[in-house]
Write a structure and sequence with these properties.
Length: 242
């Protein structure tokens, strides 16, 4: 028979073991809950679109929670990083379609491409053409217009431009006109020229005398420039030579 002291010791040891086991279980549960709370959710990274093997087909549409393959026209999850994207890139269907797209790009597909950069480009071109059509401007000026747009400064500067009808008128009359008139006068001082005059009437029925000059430029090409517009009381020869 065991003594009471031995019974108490066994009971104490048993209780201590249960307490330790309980604490371990509690710690394990706590760690598991903690890991669940800090679970990482992958975000779509724009730089993926420039990496192999994604650069020729990967994009992400605005307000969409999925990546998009515009070659296969399917949505792809990126919540686990590149795993699903790489799996899609290795499928036979994707490899076949991508090869066809690279070998025989469709002009229609290229024009209506779903990549963000191409969409922005198409919208910009459409806005320029629409501006020309709405204002009855000849489409032949589009080359010069594109060159002008490309020469403009950074977008931050363009956003600060405040140019209305009145300001534009003053800019032409008080700034550009005197400058180009003086520049033309300096050119005529260095080379032979002829004067051409003609009477005209503007929309307000005001009589004007157009003074033009014809001369040979540095490339030995003939040029005709407007030198001045002079208001007249009438268009008779007597008034012109008065």
């Amino acid at each position: 028979m065991m003594s009471s002291s031995e019974d108490g010791s066994d009971f104490s040891n048993s209780a201590e073991r249960k307490s330790i086991k309980k604490r371990k279980c509690g710690k394990s549960t706590e760690m598991k809950v903690s890991k669940t709370l800090i679970k990482y959710s992958q975000k779509y990274l724009k730089e993926w679109e420039t990496e192999e093997p994604f650069k020729d087909w990967l994009t992400k549409r605005e307000n969409d929670e999925f990546a998009f393959c515009f070659v296969c026209e399917v949505k792809l999850s990126y919540k686990e990083g590149k795993i699903a994207l790489k799996k899609h890139a290795q499928t036979a269907k994707h490899i076949s379609r991508l090869a066809v797209a690279k070998e025989k790009p469709s002009s229609v597909t290229s024009f209506f491409s779903t990549t963000p950069a191409d969409i922005t480009l198409c919208q910009t071109e459409a806005k320029l053409v629409t501006f020309l059509v709405e204002n009855d401007i000849a489409l032949s000026v589009v080359d010069d217009l594109v060159s002008l747009v490309k020469s403009l400064p950074h977008k931050n500067v363009i956003e600060k431009v405040r140019l209305g009808k009145q300001k534009a008128t003053n800019l032409v009359r008080q700034g550009l006109a005197p400058y180009f008139k003086d520049k033309l006068a300096d050119t005529l001082k260095e080379r032979p020229f002829s004067i051409i005059i003609d009477e005209t009437t503007d929309i307000g029925t005001t009589k004007q005398l157009a003074v033009c000059c014809i001369f040979s430029n540095e490339k030995l090409e003939m040029e005709v420039d407007l030198l001045d517009l002079i208001e007249c009381s009438d268009g008779t020869a007597a008034t012109v030579f008065a």
